[in-house]
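Progress report, Aim 2. The chain analyzed during this reporting quarter is listed below.
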Amino acid sequence: MQIGIDARELCGRPTGVGRYLAHLLTSWDSVPEASAHRLVLFVPAGEPGNSLPARLNASALTVETRSIPGGSGTWWEQVHLAAALRSSPPDVLFAPAYTAPLAVRVPTVLTIHDLSFLAHPEWFPLRMRVRQRLVTTAAARRARCVLTDSDFSRDEIVRRLGIAGARVRVVPLGLTRPAGDRLPSPDRVRQPLVLFVGSIFNRRHLPEMIRAVADVATRHPDIRLEVVGDNRTYPHQDLREVAQSAGIAERTSVRSYVTDDVLAGLYARAGVFVFLSDYEGFGLTPLEALSYGVPILVGDTPVAREVYGDAARYVATTDVPGAAEAIETLLFDAEARAGVIARAPGTLARYSWDRAGRQTLSALLDAARHD
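Predicted structure tokens for the chain:
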């Protein structure tokens, strides 16, 4: 069987969906039934080199990369990728990033990670939210199967897009474990480093986090803040300016991207991870931090409670004094920090890329065989 994959998110410097797809591809290398199928990765011609996981180059999987001309984005997807699929159709298409070609007859499995553009359209420019709403809705309604990351997102997809619940499968994301796959000891010496990793959206309340860190800094002058993520705020937020206004510019680092090795080093050194998000489909980076033994402070929302359970400290997303108190406690109160980490194994055990890979492959094969 030939499995086509829209792999454009692997091009350049993958984040978010690109990392999701890379982990699934790598996980299939350990799934015996995957080796019976041919994977065809469709990428835009002329884009920066794709980031196909190096392990796949020496794996038992049969992998082919096809460069499709025509630029990138929605036009590439709906015109040029669609033409390639009509010319040489795979048995099934995996579209891992919300949208898929509409004018094709290839059975499709579509992943929708969240419906933020419908739940909160004010967070997006008009053109983006209109395009996303129209294409995602149409793609979801014609897909053989829709995958999503949480029960919260499944309920939103059923309710907001009118998709039958039987066609929506929840496949929780997995984790990339630290070397040795063992949770670090809660007694490990940590730096007074506050860490945020993820794309920067207004809903994640980075200015509030910065002000909370500034509050703690008045009592602990050695505290530092590291922010890693592409700034996609709308309206735009200048985080360096916020840090300057809060008086902690010299303690704050804001980077749009770091390598996996640098990121692992940040997780290994951080004393607390902060993620004050109003809305997520899942929220992976707090789990990654938790797997490195970093206590996490997250916004108190239904999906956060679903994903992190009792292995987190919760606070209202705009409560700056509450966030400051929680940050200070998790950084400097060893007993409180150990209490969060002690509950981590039960939460982390629910998330596995091997399991996610098997469930995703099963959905693809079922879609291809469906009459």
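The chain has a mean pLDDT of 92. The radius of gyration is 21 Å. These observations will guide the mutagenesis work planned for the next reporting period.
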